[in-house]
Amino acid sequence: MATLYKTAKSEYQDVDDVLEEREKRSDIKQRILMVASRGVTFRQRHLMNDLEVLLPHSKKESKVEAKQDIDILNELAEIQNCNNVFYFEARKHQDLYLWIARAPSGPSVKFHVQNIHTMDELKMTGNCLRGSRPVLSFDSNFDSEPHLQLLKEIFTQTFGVPKGARKSKPFFDHVFTFSIVDGRIWFRNFQIVEKDAQTGGDMAKNAKPTLIEIGPRFVLNTIRIFEGSFGGPTLYENPRYISPNVVRAAVRSQKATKYASRVADTQDREARARANPLPSDPLKDVFE
Amino acid sequence: MSDDEQMYDEAMMEDEETALEIAALQSEDLLPQPKKEFINHKAALRALVDELSQKSLNWIQRCDVTSAEPIVVDKTENDLDRELKFYQQGLEAVIQAQLEVKNVGVPFSRPDDYFAEMVKSDAHMARIRQKLLDQQKGIQNSEEAKKQRELRKYGKKIEQEKLKEREDQKKASLDKIATIKKRLRSGDLGEVDDFEIDVASDDDGGSAKAKGTRGKKGKDGRPMVNHKRLSKNEKFGFGGKKRGLRKNTAESTSDMSGFSQKRNKSANFSAVHQRGKTKRPGKSKRQRTN
To answer: In terms of CA atoms, which chain B residue is nearest residue A170?
Structure first.
């Protein structure tokens, strides 16, 4: 019925205008589906909850089985009428991988999440309105490579709250910073304080605002960028990414080589002792 | 690569990793990088960026600000430097955003009377505040404790100095008394002068000598002795009689030298011996003679 009404309405408007309007609305309308896999730890679950609170245009979904249901996620997104998906995949109760995908056909990115600090930590003293729109601050390193430009675009459309979102609030309270250091993307969330730090009253005219960290904070290490949503041909592979399993294996092998080399050394020593016996001492029996 | 192959590839990521593990164990490198071509389809990526970018939207609907200069951190482990750079990037972005928002005409800062639900609950913020207060108090306490320790050390030093001084004085006076006693025992009369002069010459303020007889000369022209003071010194002073000595011994009780039969039976025994008191005639006699 709605479409009939709309087509009837369009007789009074130019078709191009209608299409443009629909395009604009779809450009504006971004909704995120947040899903976690089974086996997330408490810290990872809190991170997901924090992001759900900070992004009012998100919708949380119940847990899915890890490997089988990756293709189900696209269908889930369609059911919930979301065009972005954040999938928190936990492996071995230790590593957290974050998939950011554009639901029907768009690109998807897989990240490895490290250094998670949630909003609950008492060192993060800032606070902001629930649902206020953030200012997004990007490092200019994001403009240097095409894959980074794509990431910047994706972050703007997912982490940026659209203007008319249902649960959003009017004022600009906090800023998300995305920076690239050491080939990884560092995320921080700061509260904008425009009061004087000492007195708590209004600031002087030209004084700069202060930033207080709200949290959460995490580091994203890009693994791959795919052309399709949760699959498809790889468009980009990060050469500097080393899987955490490989790191752990390397540490263990280092310990193993230490032990192996020690055993080999003792064997060597014994062999050498046998090969070069001490000459007989003529004064051996003097003190008897 | 078809979709199926890619999915297979993805699902088999684990096996790929085990292959890498084997390579790690075999090779000498600890963190091996498999030497192969890394996929980076720049043209496809750029095309996607163009496709995705929301050209139709104005700035206010995206609110993204890119910094003017790239962030360069020489050591990732240098937390302070890194966080400072993030802070500066955020601050710069906020200032620019304020300008842009002002241009559009949308309100930027939250007014003081706007109350709405916050991301962290009030209870949580109270806990944060409590923790900060506790930290401050902890710092204050430790500072006070430090100060007290310093004072105590200083006070202790002073106390020790005073004690040392007193001990030295005591030792000196004891030595003097010992030498005087020795002299008294060995050579008698001529030394009485030394007794007084020595003690008087050394002790300026602290000596226990009554003002009444100090410096006064008696009838002979010799300085007056305060017998009361001397006996007190003997009893209570340094090197004086040891305390707790029995006042009566068997000898002293059977000592009859203080008792004299002749005196006891004399007429004016009860009268108190008054020396130096002249007998004065009565008023009438004085008036008669004057």
So the answer is: B107
Tell if the CB–CB gap between B119 and A128 is shorter than 8 Å: yes
Instruction: List, in order, residues 6 or more apart from A66 with CB less than 8 Å away.
Output: A37, A38, A39, A89, A90, A91
- A236 in Cβ contact with A227 (< 8 Å): no
Burial label for A225, CB within 10 Å (0-12, 13-18, 19+), is: buried
Cβ contact, residue pair B109, A67, below 8 Å: no
Query: How much is the pLDDT for A17?
Result: 67
* Closest B-chain CA to A254: B30
Most B CBs within 10 Å, among A28, A177, A247, to test the B interface: A177
Residue A288, SS3 per DSSP: coil
Q: How far is CA B107 from CA B29, B110, B111, in A?
A: 57, 8, 9
A29 close to A162: Cβ distance less than 8 angstroms: yes
CB atoms within 10 A of CB A226: 21
Question: What pLDDT is attached to residue A3?
Answer: 66
Residue A207 to residue B24: CA distance in whole angstroms: 55
Give Cα B36 distance to the centre of its chain: 66
ipTM of the complex in this document:
0.81
User: Tens digits of per-residue pLDDT, B150-159?
Assistant: 999 999 999 9
Query: Distance from A281 to chain B by nearest Cα, in Å?
Result: 46
Rounded distance between C-alpha atoms, residue A51 and residue B17, angstroms: 30
Interface test with A, best of B22, B45, B88, B134 (most A CBs within 10 A): B45
Q: How far is CA B179 from CA A139, A150, B186, B232, B234, in A?
A: 93, 105, 10, 20, 16
pTM above 0.80, yes or no: no
User: Could you tell me the pLDDT band of residue B260, with boundaries at 50, 70 and 90?
Assistant: confident
Q: State the DSSP string of B175-225.
A: HHHHHHHHHHHHS-TTHHHHHHHHHHHH-SSS----GGGTT-B-TTSSBPP
**E strands within A103-183?**
108-117, 132-138, 169-181
CA angle A97, A103, A105 (to 5 degrees): 110
Among partner residues B61, B63, B66, which is closest to A28 by beta-carbon distance? B61
Contact criterion met (CB < 8 Å) for B94 and A23? no
Q: Do B125 and A246 touch (CB under 8 A)?
A: no
In chain A, what residues touch B66 (CB-CB under 8 Å)?
137-140, 142-143, 152
